[in-house]
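Usage

Read records sequentially. Each one opens with the input sequence:
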Amino acid sequence: MIPDQLRTARATLGQLWGLGRPLKMSEMGRALGLGGRDPGESIRDYERGATAISGPISRLVRVYLGGALPPDGLDSIKPD
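and closes with the structure output:
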């Protein structure tokens, strides 16, 4: 997966998951199970090309695009 594909996936998932907008970077980070104070920081790095997108991240994004939801549901991607 390349940065533009991840950016497009955020937009597509926001629509598929009924948000009516692209996922925020922090929401995408939480959906992918990324940790840290700001999970969106990794997404920013991926989309800028500063960090390579790993195979497991790519695969999980494709699973979500295929219709899967995060294991803990959509409430788990929203900020606390």
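Summary fields computed downstream for this record:
- Residues 3-16 form the longest helix (14 residues).
- The chain has one domain: 3-77.
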